[in-house]
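User: tokens in, sequence out, please.
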């Protein structure tokens, strides 16, 4: 399998690698992603957020939950929505983010069978957000410049930003 299942940290600004082989390691990754996203307050989780540089994400929005391996956004509506968006990778920060009002992602399951997920409102936002993670983007990258500057300042002032830093 292409990618990083060894636990080495994956940089969230890097594009994730496509999954090339379905095996027990992929099943284990999907199981972990699903178990984590089903915890309260979680809408989606991409493999790079847990240090695995593979194109896989899970989602849990409005009672719908699942996962997609090698997802690609194949359809975005011209109509947009703007609403508060947050991320497990930048905790406690929520900023208004513009997204397509409807989105469709196509990929495969762990047995390499085709999957297509279409969503509106929050599910559309989630599908776009998680696909962005696989492409090395955070939602902060999509903010208007002045709002992005404010968000980055708030991130730098957060306790979690400095965890693990020496000195």
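Assistant: Sequence out:
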């Amino acid at each position: 399998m292409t990618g990083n299942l060894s636990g080495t940290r994956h940089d969230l600004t890097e594009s994730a690698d496509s999954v090339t082989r379905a095996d027990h390691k992929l099943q284990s990754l999907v199981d972990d992603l699903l178990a984590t996203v089903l915890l309260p307050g979680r809408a989606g989780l991409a493999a790079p957020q847990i240090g695995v540089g593979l194109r896989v994400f899970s989602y849990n929005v409005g009672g719908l939950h699942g996962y997609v391996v090698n997802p690609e956004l194949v359809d975005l509506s011209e109509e947009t929505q703007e609403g508060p968006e947050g991320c497990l990778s930048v905790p406690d920060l929520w900023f208004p983010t513009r997204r397509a009002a409807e989105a469709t992602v196509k990929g495969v399951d762990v047995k390499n069978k085709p999957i297509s997920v279409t969503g509106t409102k929050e599910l559309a936002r989630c599908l776009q957000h998680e696909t962005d993670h696989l492409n090395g983007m955070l939602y902060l990258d999509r903010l208007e410049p002045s709002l992005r500057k404010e968000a980055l300042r708030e991130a730098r002032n957060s306790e979690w930003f400095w965890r693990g830093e020496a000195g």
